[in-house]
Specification:
about 290 residues, alpha/beta, Rossmann fold, 8-stranded mixed β-sheet, 8 strands, about 30% helix, about 15% strand
Amino acid sequence: MVVEPIKIEEYKSEITPTWCPGCGDFAVLRGIHTALARLKIKSENVVISSGIGCSSNLPGFVNAYGFHGLHGRSLPIANGIKLANTDLTVIATGGDGDGYGIGLGHFIHSMRRNIDITYIVMNNQIYGLTTGQASPTSERGMLTKSTPSGLLEVPVNPIALALISGATYVSRGFSGNADHLSSTIENALSHKGFSLVDVLSPCVTYNKIQTYQWFRDRVYTLEDEEHDTNDLKQAISKSYEWESKIPIGVFYKADKPTYDGDEPALQDGPLVNQPLDTGKNIAKQLLDEFT
């Protein structure tokens, strides 16, 4: 049977994106539209969750199911959706403040469980929605509204953190290289397990340091370096490259058991397709099982 191609336009919602002109998040949105179309995933089988922030408005710009949750909570929402219906393609989206700040605990535990979802983080090294405070990935010494004398903290390294926490697909994209970003997201969606796509997504309004040109002068693709994506130690070493050379592409990829694949309650298929036992003896059965 021949599967008809799906046009990118079918994934675009009627809501016009409200980001500032030039925002890197536009390339991420295009990358998601493109990846879904290439993979021929129907809109009704896609759910996108988000937290709070400029980037977290993204679910509204995709013709799919969406859940706009609380600050830092996109991952537990995505995890719950996936465990309830494993047939769905589940994507979590957000920014560096949302995901690597208040949501950092969820980030680590979702990765160590290796739940089969894709997490796309639009990392602009600043809080954009609240007009320019230092974020968890802001550079030490950076002058912002919240650090007028210079930031004293060392930034979070999300790639290294993902690698040591158990993510089985760890990658980085750059909004200034839209085609490469689309392919990276496509591969993440195809991967079975927790996939991270950390996107260097410049904030043109509040971050005047990490600009498109700043990244263009530094980024290179790991594919051009013949990087071994099966070598965890090499991936960790690459994750610490930043100052003069910044790698983008797939750092690490591994085929490992997933939480949703091993969960006994899901062995008979998605929970939503299983019969709901509401018999009179269900309470007694539960008590007997757990006592």
